[in-house]
Automatic annotation (TrEMBL), chain A:
Keyword Transcription regulation: no
Protein source organism: Cognatiyoonia sediminum
A Pfam family per the record: Fer2_2
PROSITE patterns: 2FE2S_FER_2
InterPro entries per the UniProt record, alphabetical: 2Fe-2S-bd, 2Fe-2S-bd_dom_sf, 2Fe-2S_ferredoxin-like_sf, 2Fe-2S_ferredoxin-type, Beta-grasp_dom_sf, Diverse_Oxidoreductases
GO MF term (any one): metal ion binding
CDD domains with a match to the protein in the record: fer2 (cd00207)
Domain 2Fe-2S ferredoxin-type: 5-81
Name listed for the protein in its UniProt record: Carbon monoxide dehydrogenase, small subunit
Keyword set includes Iron-sulfur: yes
Classification lineage: Bacteria, Pseudomonadati, Pseudomonadota, Alphaproteobacteria, Rhodobacterales
Keyword line: 2Fe-2S, Iron, Iron-sulfur, Metal-binding, Oxidoreductase
From TrEMBL, chain B:
Domain of life: Bacteria
Organism: Cognatiyoonia sediminum
E.C. designation(s): 1.2.5.3
Domain Aldehyde oxidase/xanthine dehydrogenase a/b hammerhead, chain residue ranges per copy: 32-141
Protein name (Swiss-Prot/TrEMBL): Carbon monoxide dehydrogenase large chain
Stretch forming the signal peptide: none
Subunit field text: Dimer of heterotrimers. Each heterotrimer consists of a large, a medium and a small subunit.
PANTHER family the UniProt entry points to: ALDEHYDE OXIDASE 1-RELATED, XANTHINE DEHYDROGENASE
GO terms of molecular function: anaerobic carbon-monoxide dehydrogenase activity; carbon-monoxide oxygenase activity; copper ion binding; iron ion binding; molybdenum ion binding
Automatic annotation (TrEMBL), chain C:
Protein name: Carbon monoxide dehydrogenase, medium subunit
SMART domains: CO_deh_flav_C (SM01092)
GO MF: FAD binding; oxidoreductase activity
Species in which this protein is naturally found: Cognatiyoonia sediminum
Keywords from the named record: FAD, Flavoprotein, Oxidoreductase
SUPFAM superfamilies: CO dehydrogenase flavoprotein C-terminal domain-like, FAD-binding/transporter-associated domain-like
Domain (FAD-binding PCMH-type): residue spans on this chain: 1-177
UniProt keyword Oxidoreductase present: yes
Length: 164, 809, 284
């Protein structure tokens, strides 16, 4: 066993410092060390996207990153995207349009979608399907996920327009 | 009074009862990352257990050396069969009347089989410990093909033969070979053969429904915590049937059932994967007892795909006979069922091939005979119902393919062939040749609606043009029109013929109305995404007149929920939904007496109206359910006990028979085998519709899992028994990019025997979807002489079909 | 899936990388995005006692476009390639190909260097770079070497790069003419069943020059000079395309896997190449 090293990661705005083996996977750091259990583990080979978080502005599968790689970085998980008092429009839209069933893929799905809409605030259905293709859902068949993201995009664009 | 200005329609709307698309109450926590799945559980001092697994599909184990593993920092214990044997836990009973090794007892029978259980302080140490366990194997001849297995001298299961090597009787009767498990029959053999042998037209076909896997996004796992001071075992896990797990754990561990608490927290999809009892559960419990600490076991994805709960793997040979104008006269089906190394099929006890005897489908077939032979091979055990009732996907695939083959034989349109053979509306309740009594249906109406919606004749004309263009060299794309009409059999089921390990397959609901007019209801089922907390509250809202928003639904904790057999086989709505309605009616009956007392009239003089009891003929005199609830707790009413609670254990009189009509339009690139689903129309009739939004979501999901199975998803083995599809690179789970938009539609034919007329829908789209996608592929090649080709229709297999038909020039 | 323990290094410069490589030899490996290596480590199919993360090494993430050449740093991600409008204008095939690699999350992490350096025959960029006649710059204890992409791949996971060298950048002569990257795969996230990279220069109605490379149809990418030669001088008509396909089929050597048997792969390789040539020609 290699020795533990000191790491510092800012998760959802909070700086976390701890000792860990470098081989610890970021998903376990979040879930087991920091008790941030929103991101889930689905495939472990970077195919399903259940573990998606945002790291320094990129959508990343946290099952395929060692904690050592994440040292010094800023990580956002579903918990940092919106909560009771400040729900993200995507969180509302997924509920409103039945964009989830068992809920297991949902945190990764919404986290990825925030980034998608940041890069493309007005995506077509095709762009949503392509942009969300790194996240697998076994329950919904995606149709209502697409609908949810379209609805959130419309709401966010309307809010932006109103603010301008 | 404020209440008087509210109209009756508004009062109905306020309840958010049956029939409305109520938004889901579960979603707040899931969208905020606050779900509570089993791997989220973290207990003080919790240890982590994981398996050493066999790299071989068939081997003798000559030695297991755990010494080096025990030296790995953080590793506390390594369990082997030798450690479990004194406890009698090295083998465990399966749901199918067979038994299964918990840890390899001298040999292994499939790749990935559990050999030793390493218990460590964390998952990293456990993984290092696994690497350090030294196992010596002596490889044995591997049997992957069930037909070869039935011919082989190699005895896979020494425990199933006597000292002379003769097969002993199994749970389902005599066995004809040492690798044979059972023969199961339904219907009349001789009359069926007579009809077929003398028929004007007979179509024969052999088809393989390949092995696949439910693969929910969350794998299986558990946390076992033995509290030695109080003698209590708590077991959290991904259980689709928590009560059954409690009983099984009690029976095999000897811990009294009241000292076991099983909790299913949020479950990340099940689709049948989480019905069975797995070695991981047993080992975690033992490890917790041994160490006195909580022990967590969570499968990784490869473990999941390789070991827990495959589905299908049926070789089906069929003969169907008809008059020359297309009236079906007889059906014969023989199945060779590959069960792997242990028969761990999750079926009701008396049905070793599940409800495969629904294979006469939606058709009025007067004579039929089914026989199923179960066979051992060197593959993983399982045989679960992957998003379907027990083996119904296989049955519906079989009949919907046989219909297509018969249509070819008759040179007839397959839609028309279906139409002239459907069971007619006036024939319900209809007793099928293989014994089931279909409760209700109106197939012709559904079929006509579907064909009209897609402009079936227009599609056929377009297809004919495409064929001409193809022959003229103007296109390399063919067009397939996939049809399927399915009848499901769900809601297991009547206790008289359905049980699991002797436990009758009733279900239950217990309701407590609180003094302020809100309520909690607990059920014996467990949601895995179906949204029970939303929809069962809707049933109750309509039944008892309290708003769904005031009703908490709780499932999955055996210490609090009434006994039930769990959620799978689309049984929640048909059975627990019925229990919910019946318990609600008990509440209402008592409420009626309280209302009458409060209104100072006779019980019979009040009637229920949405959310209140009113005096007949005097609607201005009423008591709301909320008022009645309070009165139940604060007034001494002569002859009536205080409180307002009810419980119902519902034993359904029959199964329910949802049905549907699906059409798929697909373009196929003949040169690459690439398919493009241009259109998919799904009409479902699930009886009374509780929540249209949830129904539509279930249909989308079931169709997508059907698409996966039909077009590429398989658990494939090589000849050495190695699993070739152990990760999501090779095991096909479609992404948003591969999935089309679906058009959904419905008719409503209520179940006559269900209290609210509901039939269940979760699995219909999978059952009906698989043959529909497959038929679309096959239909594209019908004009070029194809009769049948096996799934999965991935690119290379479609290419092979085209190639064999000479379409590559 | 838990990898074996390792020592982790995140040097700030290439000298630091090289000294660790020199010290630990075969026991050390460099990692860029990690999306090929980490799954292998988790499956314990790759044993890496000393893991060198390149993320802090400066100067590896630049995209430079001049009149003649394009230079892409080893740590440039597929996402960055897709996102770079100047690059899309200078060599549009790079964006077209990158969009067909893996999925959005993986493309944020997956790098050009990682994709071309590890020699995985399933990766798309090696063939792409052969088509573009790229040159890989590697640096080792003895300094820099430049290796043409067309000479880089020896066998699966075997390349002309020494274990103690690091690939730092890819240099491409600025392409002209029409282009196409055509890939058949089973789903998003899959490797190619067959893929073809094609660049064609058209002059006065005929093909002046062409480059063709195929992916995942041998244990290395296949740069098919003979296929390109079949096009040069022709009007890229049916006969020329068929000749190019025949030539290409002589160069590839696919093996059977879950994507299908050899005959199928060869057939698809031909179809894919035909489509790529037709599309490239239409853009030329």
């Amino acid at each position: 066993m290699s020795s533990k090293k000191h790491y510092s990661i800012t998760v959802n705005g909070k700086q976390e410092e701890f000792l860990a083996e470098p081989r610890e996977l970021l998903i376990y750091t979040l879930r087991e060390r920091l008790n941030i259990t929103g991101p889930h583990i689905g495939c472990e080979t970077s195919h399903c996207g259940a573990c998606t978080v945002t790291i320094d502005g990129k959508s990343v599968k946290a099952c395929t990153m060692f904690v050592a790689q994440a040292d010094g970085k800023y990580v956002t998980t579903i918990e940092g995207i919106g909560g009771l008092d400040d729900l993200h429009p995507l969180q509302n839209a997924f509920k409103e349009h039945h964009g989830l069933q068992c809920g297991y893929c949902t945190p990764g799905m919404i986290t990825r979608a925030t980034k998608l809409l940041e890069e493309n605030p007005n995506p077509t259905e095709e762009e949503i399907r392509f942009g969300m293709a790194g996240n697998i859902c076994r329950c919904t068949g995606y149709q209502n996920i697409v609908k949810s993201i379209q609805a959130a995009a419309a709401e966010m664009n309307a809010a932006k327009e109103a603010a301008e | 009074m404020k209440d008087e200005v509210i109209t009756r329609e508004e009062r109905v709307a306020n309840l958010k009862g049956m029939g409305c698309s109520r938004k889901r109450v579960e979603d707040a926590r899931f969208t905020q990352g606050k779900g509570n799945y089993v791997d989220d559980i973290k207990l003080d001092g919790m240890l982590f257990g994981d398996f050493v697994r066999s790299p071989y599909a068939h081997a003798k184990i000559t030695n297991i050396d755990t010494a080096a593993a025990l030296e790995v920092p953080g590793v506390l214990a390594v369990l082997t069969a030798k450690d479990l044997e004194p406890l009698g836990l090295h083998w465990m009973p399966t749901l199918a009347g067979d038994k299964q090794m918990v840890l390899a007892d001298g040999k292994v029978l499939f790749q990935g089989q559990e050999v030793a259980f390493v218990v460590a302080e964390d998952r990293y140490a456990a993984a290092d410990g696994i690497e350090a366990v030294e196992v010596e194997y002596e490889e044995l001849e591997v049997l992957i093909d069930p037909f070869k297995s039935m011919q082989s001298d190699v005895v896979l299961r020494e425990d199933t033969v006597d000292e002379n090597g003769k097969p002993m009787d199994g749970a389902h009767g005599p066995r004809t070979h040492h690798n044979h498990i059972f023969t199961w029959e339904a219907g009349d053999k001789d009359p069926t053969f007579e009809v077929i042998d003398s028929a004007e037209v007979v179509a024969e076909e052999t088809m393989y429904y390949h092995r696949t896997h439910p693969c929910p996004l969350e794998t299986c796992g558990c946390v076992a915590s033995m509290d030695k001071v109080n003698g209590k075992l708590t077991l959290w896990g991904t259980f689709q049937a928590p009560h059954a797990i409690r009983t099984v754990v009690s029976l095999i561990s000897g811990i009294e059932e009241h000292n076991i608490r099983v909790i299913s927290p949020d479950i990340g999809g099940g689709f049948g994967n989480k019905v069975g009892a797995y070695p991981g559960y047993v080992c975690s419990v033992v490890a917790s007892i041994v160490t006195g600490k909580p022990v967590k076991w969570i499968e990784d994805r490869m473990d999941n795909l390789m070991t827990t709960a495959f589905a299908r793997d049926y070789w089906m040979k069929g003969r169907i006979s008809a008059t020359k104008d297309g009236k079906i006269t007889g059906l014969h089906c023989h199945v060779t069922a590959d069960h792997g190394g242990f028969d761990a099929c999750a079926d009701p006890t008396k049905f070793p091939a599940g409800f495969m005897n629904i294979c006469t489908g939606s058709y009025d077939i007067p004579t039929a005979y089914l026989e199923v032979d179960g066979v051992y091979t060197n593959k993983a055990p399982g045989g679960v119902s992957y998003r379907c009732s027990f083996r119904v996907t296989e049955a519906v695939y079989f009949i919907e393919r046989m219909i297509e083959v018969l249509a070819i034989e008759l040179n007839m349109d397959a839609a028309e062939l279906r139409r002239i053979n459907f069971i007619k509306k006036e024939q319900f309740p209809y007793t099928a040749a293989l014994g089931w009594e279909y409760d209700s249906g109106d197939y012709h109406t559904a079929w006509d609606k579907a064909l009209k919606a897609v402009d079936y004749e227009g599609l056929r004309a377009e297809q004919a043009q495409r064929i001409e263009d193809f022959k003229a060299g103007k296109t390399r794309s063919l067009m397939g029109i996939g049809l399927s009409f399915f009848t499901e059999i769900v809601g297991a089921g009547p206790v008289k013929n359905c049980d699991i390990l002797g436990l009758g397959m009733f279900d239950s609901c217990e309701i407590r109305i609180h003094p302020t007019g809100s309520a909690i209801a607990r059920l014996g089922t467990i949601s895995q995404g179906q949204g029970h907390a939303t929809t069962f509250a809707q049933i109750l809202a309509s039944e008892i007149g309290l708003p769904a928003d005031s009703i908490t639904i709780e499932e999955g904790d055996t210490d609090t929920a009434p006994y039930g057999l769990g959620t799978y086989g689309s049984r929640s709505t048909p059975v627990a939904g019925a229990a919910t309605a019946m318990a609600g009616r008990k509440i209402r009956a008592k409420a009626q007496m309280i209302a009458a007392y409060l209104l100072e009239v006779h019980d019979d003089d009040v009637e229920f109206d949405v959310d209140r009891f009113v005096v007949k003929g005097a609607p201005e005199r009423f008591k709301t359910m909320k008022e009645i609830a309070f009165a139940a707790y604060n007034q001494a009413i002569p002859g009536i006990e205080p409180g307002l609670e009810a419980v119902s254990y519902y034993d359904p009189p029959n199964m329910t028979y949802p049905f549907g009509a699906y059409v798929c339009v697909m373009d196929i690139d003949v040169d690459t085998g690439v398919t493009d689903i241009r259109r998919f129309y799904a009409l479902d009739d699930c009886g009374t519709r509780i929540n249209p939004m949830v129904i539509e979501g279930q249909v989308h999901g079931g169709l997508t899992e059907a698409l996966a199975v039909a077009l590429g998803q398989e658990i494939a083995y090589d000849e050495m028994g190695n699993v070739k599809t152990g990760t999501l690179m090779d095991f096909f789970l479609p992404t948003a990019w591969e999935v089309p938009n679906y058009e959904t539609d419905h008719t409503v034919t209520p179940s006559p025997h269900h209290p609210i007329g509901a039939k269940g829908v979760g699995e219909s789209p999978h059952v009906g979807g698989v043959p529909c996608f497959s038929n679309a592929v096959q239909d594209a090649f019908r004009a070029f002489g194809l009769r049948h080709t096996n799934m999965p229709h991935d690119h290379w297999r479609i290419w092979k079909t085209a190639n064999e038909l000479g379409l590559h020039g | 899936m838990i990898p074996a323990a390792f020592e982790y290094y995140r040097p700030k410069d290439m000298a630091g990388v090289l000294s660790i490589l020199e010290e630990h030899g075969d026991d050390a490996r460099v990692m860029a995005g990690g999306h090929s290596l980490i799954p292998m480590m988790k499956l314990r199919m790759a044993d890496v006692p000393h893991l060198i993360d390149l993320q802090d090494v400066g100067g590896l993430s630049d995209i430079e476009i001049s009149n003649d050449t394009i230079s892409i740093g080893a740590m440039v991600t597929q996402h960055a390639i897709i996102d770079h409008d100047g690059l899309a204008e200078a060599a549009p095939i790079l964006r077209e190909a990158s969009l067909q690699i893996a999925d959005p999350q993986v493309r944020y992490m997956g790098t050009v260097g990682g994709n071309v350096a590890n020699g995985d025959p399933g990766n798309d960029m090696p063939g792409l770079m052969q088509c573009l006649d790229a040159t890989f710059t590697v640096v080792g204890a003895d300094g820099e070497r430049r290796i043409p992409a067309r000479e880089f791949y020896e066998a699966a996971y075997m390349t002309a790069r020494d274990d103690e060298e690091v690939l730092t950048s890819v240099t491409i002569p600025r392409p002209s003419g029409g282009y196409a990257y055509e890939k058949q795969k089973r789903k998003i996230g899959d490797y190619a069943t067959a893929a073809a990279a094609v660049q064609i220069v058209k002059e006065g109605g005929s093909c002046a020059s062409a480059a063709i490379a195929m992916t995942n149809l041998s244990d290395t990418p296949i740069y098919s000079q003979s296929a390109a030669a079949a096009l040069v001088g022709s009007s890229v008509d049916d006969a020329a395309i068929s000749a190019a396909i025949d030539a290409m089929l002589g160069d590839i050597d696919p093996t059977e896997d879950n994507r299908g048997p050899v005959a199928f792969k060869k057939h698809v390789a031909g179809v894919i190449l035909r489509r790529a040539i037709e599309r490239a020609w239409s853009r030329a």
